[in-house]
Hints:
- The protein is α/β, with parallel strands linked by helices.
- The chain has a single domain (6-194), classed as Rossmann fold, CATH 3.40.50.300.
- The chain is built from five helices and seven strands; from the N terminus they run E-E-H-E-E-H-E-H-E-H-E-H.
- The protein has helices at 36-44, 86-102, 121-132, 149-164, 184-194; strands at residues 6-12, 25-30, 62-67, 71-75, 106-114, 137-142, 173-175.
- A seven-stranded mixed β-sheet has the order 1-3-4-2-5-6-7, sandwiched between helices.
- Strand 5 (106-114), helix 3 (121-132) and strand 6 form a beta-alpha-beta unit.
- The termini are close together.
Amino acid sequence: MKITKAIFSGSSRVATDRPQPRLPEFAFIGRSNVGKSSLINMLCNNGSLAHTSSKPGKTQLINHFQINEKWYLVDLPGYGYAKLSKKIRAELDDIIRGYINGSAELVNLFVLLDSRHDIQPIDLRFMMELGEAEVPFSIIYTKGDKLSATSLSKQIKNNNETLMEYWEELPPFFVSSSVKGTGREEILNYIETLL
Length: 195
């Protein structure tokens, strides 16, 4: 898939306030500081589409970007950022769950994991909840340029083995690097197969 047009369509706190027209939605979520905004910008080939920040926890609304006038890329708030107040974390949790459970147009949720680290308990819990709710999701390992090819392969193998303790079949997964553009074609082609 080639992205020829990517425009910001609006922000909302609840799924019912999403922009019109209603189109298929592909949402992106992960723990704060996993590189979500950089990945979105890389996929859309637009360095300033999603706001990147060195300070985690900046995305606190549901952000819709209309792609090629055919589908929405949805930027969801990150989860698990301990430095936010308990009240804000609870509010973000409500926004995330409200969207995931309330969007009839959600086709696939991409869960972002940092390729340098073992899967964290919070990520496992989140994916288990998705599985129980039968929400279709895929995994994107981010920051693939930060490890050598051997270390990256070993880390992903370890993480996939962890996932296989809970799933009979692995969800689709991709390895990405916002710096090198790794995974861009594979992720966009996967989205195209689901449209």
